[in-house]
Amino acid sequence: MRLVAKGDRAAFEELYRRTSPWLTVRLRRRCADEQIVAEVLQETFLAVWRAADGFAGASVDGSAMGWLWTIAARRLIDAFRRRARHAQPPPAAAVADLAPAAEEEALASTVGDGVGDALARLAPELRQVLQAMVLDGLSVRETALLLGVPEGTVKTRARRARASMRETLEALKFGDPRSREAATW
């Protein structure tokens, strides 16, 4: 990063070569639109090139990877906001025919049946927090940044999600018939 901060193009190219695949995978977990992922990746590395001298262990854990992800998460949030401003709401008929998101299908195949069932029952905002913190390994601060909510909200949602997961898993473990029709919150 010190070399990149000094304008060393070869160091920047090496940084890109080493980190762009990892960053692309993380972005794809959050967004299925390849065009947005490519734009965010480009904007992220442009920001890194311009602000590398400001790194100096700026992320929570002091790593360049954390710093890169923080920049990418901010750019992804900006891209979502831009898209939301310009998007037309889908027709009512189209909403009913939506297939599960790729991220949801990947998550279901990653975890066991009971855990997958419990995750599926969580409200979307609770599931997003767990995915960011547990599967992506983000800190509370990084999760708050990614989701565009205050850190306190992330902590509250994480606590609610864990409690709901615990309750649902216990119900499934002991065969509680209500567990099949438990409402999400």
TrEMBL record:
Keyword match Glycoprotein: no
Keywords, comma-separated and alphabetical: Sigma factor, Transcription, Transcription regulation
Superkingdom of the organism of origin: Bacteria
InterPro entries documented for this protein: RNA_pol_sigma-70-like, RNA_pol_sigma-70_dom, RNA_pol_sigma70_r2, RNA_pol_sigma70_r4_t2, RNA_pol_sigma_r2, RNA_pol_sigma_r3/r4-like, WH-like_DNA-bd_sf
Keyword Membrane among UniProt keywords: no
Pfam family of the protein (one): Sigma70_r2
Residue ranges annotated for the RNA polymerase sigma-70 region domain, each copy included: 15-85
Domain RNA polymerase sigma factor 70 region 4 type: 116-165
Family: Belongs to the sigma-70 factor family. ECF subfamily.
Protein name: RNA polymerase sigma factor
Higher taxonomy: Bacteria, Bacillati, Actinomycetota, Actinomycetes, Pseudonocardiales
